[in-house]
Each structure stands twice: as C-alpha cells, then as structure tokens.
Amino acid sequence: xxxxxxxxxxxxxxxxxxxxxKRLEYRGYDSAGxxxxxxxxxxxxxxxxxxxxxxxxxxxxxxxxxxxxxxRWATHGEPSDRNAHPHVSANGRLAMIHNxxxxxxxxxxxxxxxxxxxxxxxxxxEVLLNFIEDIQKNNESTLEEALRIALKRVVGAYVIxxxxxxxxxxxxxxxxxxxxxxxxGKGEHFLASDASPIIEYTKEVVYVNDYEIAIIKPxxxxxxNLGNERQTPFIQKLDLxxxxxxxxxxxxFMLKEIFEQPSTIYDCLRGxxxxxxxxxxxxxxxxxxxxxxxxxxxxxxxxxxxxxxGLIAEYIIEELCRIPxxxxxxxxxxxxxxxxxxxxxxxxxxxxxETADTLVALENAKEQGAVILGIVNVVGSSIARLSHAGAxxxxxxxxxxxxxxxxxxxxxxxxxxxxMIAKERNAIxxxxxxxxxxxxxxxxxKVKQVLGTAEHIQKVALKYKDVKDALYLGRGYNFPVAxxxxxxxxxxxxxxxxxxPAAEMKHGPIALVDExxxxxxxxxxxxxxxxxISNIQEIKAxxxxxxxxxxxxxxxxxxxxxxxxxxxxxxELIAPIISTIPLQLFSYYIGVARGYDVDKPRNLAKSVTVE
Length: 611
Ligand code: M6R
Fold this sequence. Notes:
By secondary structure, this protein is of the alpha/beta class. It is 37% helix and 24% strand. The chain is globular and about 80 Å long.
C-alpha cells in the first residue's frame, strides 16, 4: 500500500519520479505528490491519481536532481490534497514520504502538541516527521542521528524517505516491514517500493532489510543498522524486463495478465515438470523434502486470492499426500495464539510477498519453531526472504490489482508441491502420478482454448452487467473456485457477490434466490457432478438465473442453465486452474462495461502492507 519513489543523481528527478509513480499506482491511487530540492524545496500534491498531480505541475518549476514522490492508499485521514505525501516538517526543512502505519502516532502527537507543534494533515506520517525534526533540533544532531533515535521509539511498519532542504546532496531512508528497493546507477540512485520504476535505468539493486537506515548520495550508498553499525549492501541483479510491466497493446493490465496465463503457467512448469522422465524438480522443496514429507500437519497461511489458492491446495494435499491441512487467514492466525506443534509445516502463499498480515503471521510462527515454505511471486520479497524454503511462481509482475495470473501460477506450483510430497510418502500410485503430470503439462494449452472463447464470455457478461447481486457456488475442488469468482466480481465490478459451497445454499443463501439473482455454478465433470446438477435444479425451481462453467459438450447442464461457459475436460484436481479463467474474464467484461477502472478498483491496493 502506497508507492514511494525517490531519486538522486545527475538527471532531472521529476520525470523519473512521475514515471515511477505511474508504475507503482497499483499500490494506491487516492492522492499523489512530489517534493524536489533545487535552491530550496518545491512541493506539489494532489488528490486523485498521478495524472491529476501531473496536471497540477504543468508550467511549474520542476527543476532538481533530488526528489521524493508518493502515491497514497489512505490509512490515517481521508484522501485529500492536505493528507497527500510528501509532508513537510514544521520548520520547513524536511520533507518525507511514508508507506506503512505508525501505531503509536497518537502518543507522539500528544507530546508534540504539548511542545507547540501544529499539524496540517491527519496523517501519522506528519507526526513521525515532526518527531524527527524535534529530536534533530533539541539534540542538535544530524538527520541521520535524529532518525535513528526516533525509530527506536516508533511502533509500526514503515518505509520512509527524507530530504533535507539544508543538505540537498543526500537522501535518507529507513525500512521496517514495508518494502524498499534501491537501484544503483552510475552516479545516481533510485529508490522505490518495488523494482518496476527502476528497471529501465539499472538492473543492480539492493533490497533494504528491516531496521536498516540508508544514507544515499549520488555516488555512495551507506547502509547502517539502528545501532549505527555499517552493513554491507547485498547487490542483486534484477531478472525483469521492461516489457513485462507494460500493457503490450491490451486495454488493461488485467486483460493482459489474463491472456498471459498460458505462458505464465508454462513458465511455472518449465524446467520443473518433465513428463517423459516422470519427474518434478523444485530444488527449494527437494532440499527440504524430509522435513516436508514428515510434517504431522500443514498450515497454509495467506490472504485474499492467495487464501483461495490455499483452500484448493488443502483439498489436493489431503487427497494426494494424506497429511492433514488447515488453511488460515493470516490476519486471524497472527492474533489468535495458534497452537503450533513441533513437526508442523507452514505454507505461506503470497503474490506480492509483502502482505503485512501474512508476513507477521509467519514471523510469529517462525519464532515458535515452524518450518516455513514460501510460495511467492515477487522474487526477493520479504516473505520469500523469511521462508526457510520455497518455490517462486514465476508469473512475472502482476500489475492489475485483481489477482489473476498469480492465482493460476500458485495453483500450478502447489499442485507440483503436493505431487512431490505424495511421491516421497508413497501415497500415490505411479499411474496416478504420471497421469497428473500429463494433466498439468496440458494446462497451458487448455487455458489457451478457454481464452479462445473470450468473445462468448463477453456476450454472456454483458447480459448480466446490471445485476445487483450474484451467488457463486461450487463443490469440492470447485468450491474455492466459486469463492475466487465471487471475489473477482466484487473487486472489479462492485457487484455484491458471495461464494458458497453449493450444498450450503440450502442452509440460508437460497432465501436470496429469485428471478433477478444470477447464480454462477462451477460445475465441471468431477466426483460431485450429479450432486451439483441437483443444486442447479434447486435454483431453477426457484426461477434463479443459472450461469454454469461446464466441461465442454456437457449437454445435460447446457439444457438446464441460462448460459454456459465451457472449458476443456481435465482431471478434477487440475480443473480449478482452468475453470477459474472464464470467471476472470466474466468479471473483467462486466467491470469494463460498467465503466470502472478495472486495473485500479476503488479503495483497493495491490500490495496490502498495512494490517
Ligand atoms: O500479495 P498477496 O497474494 O499476499 O495478496 C493477498 C491479497 O491481498 C490479494 O490476493 C487480494 O485479495 C487481491 N486483490 C485479489 O484479487
């Protein structure tokens, strides 16, 4: 949540920052701002998206080789010009951007108010900034020293970047709990929440660790811990191309990412799945296979779409490996003092690798001795680094706020992990193992076939674009697919949608059914097929509208449903990866038809780095 960009070097900072903020807009887009140093400080802030900020700055003085910029997802204080970052300290000397939450800001504010400080925003950021200024003034210390003292008192999560009007040759940054990447150029440095604003300038980056302070000059990067000890920056090479973060001719990132799925799933399988040899190779799993295969219990911890992937993994792992699995919302798990036994293994699933609840839940579990296996998309992210072992999903950057390709990549990796464990435990027959390998291998092609029906899906979507509510139902492996379908519709089209296990409908939600309510069934041919047909009939008997994701050429359900979205036949264990695709497109087309910004749905942010 919130995107930060900063620059120091020989270029003009403003264009670098604005371009970077646009790339980070997926992290928050309710206001944006920039501060530049050039014979004094210049500050521009505006409610709305980065484009609105750009308009405000037209014709203004934008000179300066050092600057900071921010795109905001509001936590403290409504989206407005005055709450937008950067904030400027009371004496006008410091400006700061912040991503995160200062939990003890109210206490700090009280202290500062008693000293006569006045605040011009409702943000926790302005409080922290003045707290730093106050320490600097009282102790006559350098900004770096003042920051170190201040951060020892701060409770919460932050990445902050500061500029000092009286010291225009240095940027100072610090991190705890929120992400910060520093790009290293020739005589210049780039700071950002992720690598996307940086890659067109340099591929050499440093991921700043928690409790580190960075002192950055054009040609020098110093990292220190809060104890003022120098740390050695670990320089990594980015494995990311510019094309991967651009729309590539599609109207929206979400559509591009949906259509990328044949190749992202293929990339996820590539070099790992070998059908001819009958092997799956994932070194992160293989190197820890003894601990993993002997786990007494697996706990899956995640949020949102990643949690849905975890639910499907629960079905798959229990079926194939015969290890009990529990799937936990990270936000609940972290606070409820969970029982963690020796021999428990935790699988953390996260696209961003930065979700605050998931991260803290894992930190707690790790302290209690749990082994953490991370299934993460963003390479080098906090969750990836915190995990003992893991496997990347290799879906490439996902920029649309609604998760699509990351979800199918998560399912692909989780299925491979389950197959590896099942094989090691001798819990699966060789024939079934080989069959599932072949089925997985066929997924990219089958997904391509579903994408080939996009026009039909769009026609169906347009019929339902004005509905107020929708119910999504599925059974077995398809139940979490229904949950995910409902989440996608909510996020993108703002239509109220609920997912349920189809049989649970009778225990309450069926009261909602009338001739206006569309009910989306995920009803591909599987062990529950006959049962779900009965559920469809129960809806039809109450005049509900039925839209069904079916296995192609299923005449029975075609004859009952108002509309069908066919997908190729697949083993029921693999089918969720395929049957989720029409639901992604269904939501996308409805969201677009309703005129919404599907890449940046209201109130949402891609990377939820606050709890
Ligand atoms: O980055 P993560 O996978 O940890 O994010 C978890 C959720 O915030 C995320 O899946 C969210 O629900 C998406 N908006 C879903 O489309």
